[in-house]
Write a structure and sequence with these properties.
This protein is α/β, with parallel strands linked by helices. Helices cover about 40% and strands about 15% of the residues. Bound molecules: 4'-deoxy-4'-aminopyridoxal-5'-phosphate (PMP) and glutamic acid.
């Protein structure tokens, strides 16, 4: 008889991964679905990175590494973070771990029952899950389509209580693609300092930005001590299957979180770590090419979506998601199922990303232009029948 913990019963399966699993199952049954569900680049990992991995395997680099990561990689991440994120740090401030694992360990390391964590709504699905798994309470701050889904300090202030322990930020955002400006981030940094709130800044889409600049909140004066910055290789270098990311934080935080690493995965996969050094220090042209390609696809998908009656979408500045509003009288969960059956297209329901996501759907345009033209055409036809 299954006797699952209350903790597990309190969280659903990841909405993004569930849709993608369903697409794989239908594919096995011979039903071709055009998938706009999973947020992962459709490009192959650049050759120089794959070659570095093959070399390390051939050299027998196949055993445990130090739990915090190999020194050369920690150093390469720190150098990159100083250069690109303007965060003053060294290798000692880096823990190498998959980005999702980083999130999980951070929730367990800092959150107790009764603690509250502020999140802009909509937000990526796994934040709410890890907050709940740690026994803490997610507190959503609804954002608006009309404001490009940006949460300001004033909006956040209304949600702060004396139990607020942490704020989670994600710019560029999954699912909306919105990018927080320096001014907005500065206001939020001041509020966090005044109210003694720590920040988890998820910057995994930091390079996938088309207009404007990426700003790391930990680069503001006084913010490094209260900020855990997480990022990784998955999106910038088309390396989702490699499971490699990191946390940048004060040394005492890295040591504390590393306790959980030693009791869980021990370390990241060994032979991928020298390849990660190559990703960070080697040529960056493949990364730049992918970003230009994403920009073209954003513009194409946006025009096609805005041409559908009853659908409206704003132009996001980053990531590879569109988050259109629709005015058909159907829940976003039902819409996803309807489009899967009727249009043979997979999208992710907006509601998976929080209450403010109802009435929206998420479309990942990390796929070919042909798929975008055909799939959005199918969506248009199906929606006209509702
Ligand atoms: N943060 C955000 C906002 C994401 O969309 C994802 C999904 N990949 C992750 C973290 C986790 O990244 P990874 O799969 O590299 O662990
Ligand atoms: N982050 C991607 C997405 O939102 C991959 C799936 C997941 O990790 O949630 O689609």
């Amino acid at each position: 008889m299954p006797m699952f913990s209350k903790r597990l019963n309190d969280v659903p399966e990841s909405g993004t991964v569930a849709i993608s699993n369903l697409v794989s199952r239908l594919k096995q049954e011979g039903i071709e679905i055009i998938s706009f569900s999973m947020g992962e680049p459709d490009f192959d990992t650049p050759e120089n990175i794959k070659d570095a991995c093959i070399r390390s395997l051939k050299d027998g680099f196949t055993h445990y590494t130090p739990s915090t990561g190999i020194p050369e990689l920690r150093k390469a991440i720190a150098e990159r973070t100083v250069r690109e994120n303007k965060i003053d740090c060294t290798a000692k401030n880096v823990l190498v771990t998959p980005t999702k694992q980083a999130l999980f360990m951070i929730a367990l390391a800092y959150l107790d029952p009764g603690d509250e964590v502020i999140l802009p709504d909509p937000a990526w699905v796994s934040y709410e899950a890890v907050i709940k798994l740690a026994g803490a309470k997610p507190v959503y701050v609804p954002t608006r389509f009309e404001d490009n889904f940006v949460m300001t300090a004033d909006m956040m202030a209304a949600a702060v209580t004396d139990r607020t322990k942490m704020l989670i930020l994600n710019s560029p955002s999954n699912p909306t693609g919105s990018v927080m400006s320096r001014e907005v981030l500065r206001g939020i940094a001041d509020l966090c300092t005044e109210k003694n709130i720590m920040v988890l800044s998820d910057e995994i889409y930091e390079h996938i930005i088309y207009d404007g600049e990426h700003v790391s909140i930990a680069s503001f004066e006084g913010m490094f001590d209260r900020t855990l910055t997480i990022s990784g290789l998955s999106k910038s270098y088309a390396m989702t299957g490699w499971r490699l990311g990191w946390i940048v934080a004060p040394e005492k935080d890295i040591s504390a979180i590393n306790k959980l690493q030693t009791h869980s995965v021990t370390c990241c996969t060994s032979f991928t770590q020298p390849a990660a050094v190559e990703a960070l220090r080697g040529p960056q042209d493949a990364r730049n090419r992918m970003v230009s390609e994403f920009k073209k696809r954003r513009d194409l998908a946006l025009d096609l979506l805005n041409d559908i009656k009853g659908v409206e979408c704003n132009r996001p500045d980053g990531a590879f998601y569109l988050f259109p509003r629709y005015d058909h009288k159907i829940s976003s969960d039902d819409l996803a199922m309807y489009l899967m059956k009727d249009a043979h297209v997979a999208i992710t329901p907006g509601r998976s990303f929080g209450p403010a996501g109802e009435g929206f759907f998420r479309l990942s345009y990390a796929t070919s232009e042909d798929n975008l033209i055909k799939g959005i055409g199918n969506i248009k036809r199906s929606l006209s029948n509702i």
